[in-house]
Amino acid sequence: IIFPTDTVYGIGTRIFDIDGINKIYEIKKRPKDKPLACLCASLEQIKNIAVVTKEAEALINEFLPGALTVILESKPEVYNKIGYKTIGVRIPNCKIALDILKENGPMLTTSVNESGFKPINEYELIVKEYDNLVDKIYEANEPSSDLSSTVVLLANNEVKVLREGQISLKIR
């Protein structure tokens, strides 16, 4: 499915839907070695798929829901089913996205665009380009941003900002 978030529109599938995951890579022409991020509806959903340290929980409680993706060590089930040793998780600050995530559980997502190109964030253009490629496209009913999320690595004893986005973080 394609749906709005508080940052850019996302294309996503349930976390363990292998066919859906493969279809996203195919649609985006995305290299298989670039993992997808996981949107969740709550800290509880994050804890079901990732190892949440005290530091990670503090960061999550401070900035989520919002435009921050935190990369954490995956739970064994995630590694065993989809091969991710680490997983980027985020709780979007968008009612439509949260409703979808509450109903479907965590979803692997990425921006709507061909890999390497700027995200497409206009509903009409998304429908024109992707309508025949996905099961459903949701229209935004609240404003979003053209800016992607900030990405922070908090795994393998590392703390590192990998991408500056909407949220500016000064990691010490």
User: What class do helices, strands and sheet pairing give?
Assistant: alpha+beta
As laid out across the biggest beta sheet, the strand order is 1-2-6-3-5-4-7-8
Strand portion: 15-25%
| Major sheet characteristics | 8 strands, mixed
Question: Which labels suit this protein?
Answer:
alpha+beta, 172 residues, 8 strands, 8-stranded mixed β-sheet, 20% strand
Explain this structure:
With 172 residues, the protein is α+β, with helices and mostly antiparallel strands. The chain has six helices and eight strands. The protein has helices at 18-28, 43-49, 54-63, 76-82, 95-104, 123-130; strands spanning 2-3, 10-14, 37-39, 68-73, 86-90, 107-111, 150-153, 160-163. The protein has an eight-stranded mixed sheet with strand order 1-2-6-3-5-4-7-8. A hairpin with a 6-residue loop joins β1 (2-3) and β2 (10-14). The longest helix has 11 residues, at 18-28.
Short description:
With 172 residues, this protein is of the alpha+beta class. It has six helices and eight strands.
